[in-house]
Design brief:
Length: 463
């Protein structure tokens, strides 16, 4: 990121305000393929299209704001992960990034497995027909009901996150006459190079059992003694929006160290190692994510090398990308309501959504890009902050970006890379109605999650 020395357009003084932004692209109408879904482009009139459909038509039919998801792109990315990891490894899509029944069916068809971390996500997965043995159940405080439901359904693995849970799951499985395959989630003491709130494997955090002080070894010791549990492996998830593979290297080294200790103490070679998700995507042109095949190669080399060093059979690897599959597949389409230039500062562009459909900017200081979508423009770039309509000054969608200086109410703008953690974290703040997810493919659009209505809101208000 660099401060721009470029002129900021007619509405601004020559000196740009403090901020964390890149220079405006040479052509504001260009759509960087790094941050947009595969089938996104512009038609002859300059209107952004996806899957062959113009956003003006989508806005007319489905309203704004709306999440527009490129199904072809989703399937391409899911398949790329599946193919990259081959038959010796498993890819679990992290459902918390975005889950709907259509998505579950696409994953099933593309041969991916699925991570869920609540009873609601499990219900969605099962109701769309995902075979239970391809589902992994996560969470640091699964309720007794959730555990029972998962064990009864026969999920392929439950990832155990605490000493209490080891006993709870064992007890539930035994009382149902079952032996539940489990992995034990450990914290390896690696801090991924991301924002503090999304880095999860350093030890001072709520997830996992620390390797330090022999706690994880003790967890394995206890779990191996329980008849209700089939301990199949060790799980580690080091963070989110990671670009640098060195964190995985340290994690794999430490997890393999535990596998070796387990072998030495119990004579058992655990069969699986799960390295979690957290692979980064491009939110802006400054981000350079790795391709799935590069990641697969790197991870498999790391694990193989570590296991050879420890004289262990190489375990089956699994990974859990969420954002890296669904993130780039969708953009949020908004209509501009007001344009408010603040002389010498920036221009505030208010849209018809905001933190209720994208909390990531407020929560993590996330960066996004934005484009004028309903037309092209040759006007000078102006520095904007895209804000929502909520009663909160932190209600920011895109903190610092450039849009054409002639932007006006009624224009449609699109924020790319909102497929992950936007709809799934959406709220009803200010009694906003959560936007629909519209899937587009080969010239056809269909709603896969419909827009909420006032009736939906009032249905819950039974007073
Ligand atoms: C959140 C999470 C993931 C997915 O993270 P992404 O950044 O979306 O890839 C995978 N595994 C676990 C255990 C998680 O908590």
């Amino acid at each position: 990121m660099s401060r721009s020395a470029h002129p900021a357009g007619p509405r601004h003084a020559d000196v740009l305000p403090e901020g964390h932004y890149t220079a405006p692209a040479d052509d504001l109408n260009a759509l960087d393929p790094k941050v947009w879904a595969h089938t996104v482009g512009r038609d002859a009139d300059g209107v952004v299209t996806v899957g062959g459909i113009a956003v003006t038509q989508l806005a007319e039919e489905y309203g704004t704001p709306a999440y527009i998801l490129d199904e072809t792109d989703f399937r391409d990315r899911a398949r790329a992960w599946r193919t990259a990891f081959g038959t010796d490894a498993d890819v679990f899509y992290a459902g918390k990034a975005f889950l709907s029944r259509a998505v579950v069916r696409w994953l099933d068809e593309e041969g991916l497995n699925l991570d869920v971390c609540s009873g609601g996500e499990l219900a969605t997965a099962l109701s769309a027909g995902m075979p239970a043995e391809r589902i992994a159940f996560h969470g640091n405080n699964k309720s007794p009901e959730e555990i029972e439901r998962a064990v009864r359904a026969g999920v392929g693995r439950i990832v155990l996150d605490s000493f209490q849970e080891i006993v709870r799951v064992a007890h539930t499985a035994e009382s149902l006459g079952k032996r539940q395959p489990v992995q034990i989630r450990v914290t390896v003491g690696v801090e991924a190079h991301t924002h503090e709130f999304i880095a999860t494997a350093h030890e001072d955090q709520k997830f996992g059992i620390p390797l330090a002080d022999g706690q994880a070894a003790e967890a394995v010791r206890r779990a191996l003694q329980l008849d209700g549990l089939d301990v199949i492996g060790i799980h580690s998830h080091i963070g989110s929006q990671i670009f640098d593979m060195s964190g995985f290297e340290v994690a794999a080294h430490r997890v393999v160290g535990l596998l070796k200790d387990v072998r030495d103490e119990h004579g058992v070679e655990l069969a699986e190692i799960d390295l979690g998700g957290g692979l980064g995507i491009a939110y802006t042109s400054d981000d350079d994510p790795r391709e799935p095949h590069e990641i697969a190669k790197a991870l498999s080399e790391i694990v193989t090398r570590e296991c050879e060093g420890a004289r262990l059979r190489t375990p089956r690897i699994s990974v859990e990308p969420g954002r890296a599959i669904v993130g780039p597949t969708a953009f949020t389409l908004y209509e501009v309501g007001t344009v408010k230039p603040l002389e010498g500062l920036r221009t505030y562009v208010s849209v018809d959504g905001g933190m209720s459909d994208n909390i990531r900017t407020a929560l993590y200081d996330a960066e996004y890009s934005v484009a004028l979508a309903s037309r092209t423009s040759d006007a000078e770039p102006m520095l904007v902050r895209v804000v929502g309509k909520h009663c909160e000054s932190g209600d920011i969608v895109v903190k610092d970006a450039f849009l054409p200086g002639d932007l006006a109410p009624g224009d449609l703008i699109a924020v790319p890379a909102t497929g992950a953690y936007c709809r799934s974290m959406a709220s009803n703040y200010n009694h906003a109605m959560r936007p629909p997810v519209v899937a587009v493919r080969d010239g056809a659009a269909r709603v896969i999650v419909r827009r909420e209505t006032e009736e939906d809101l009032l249905r819950l208000d039974v007073g």
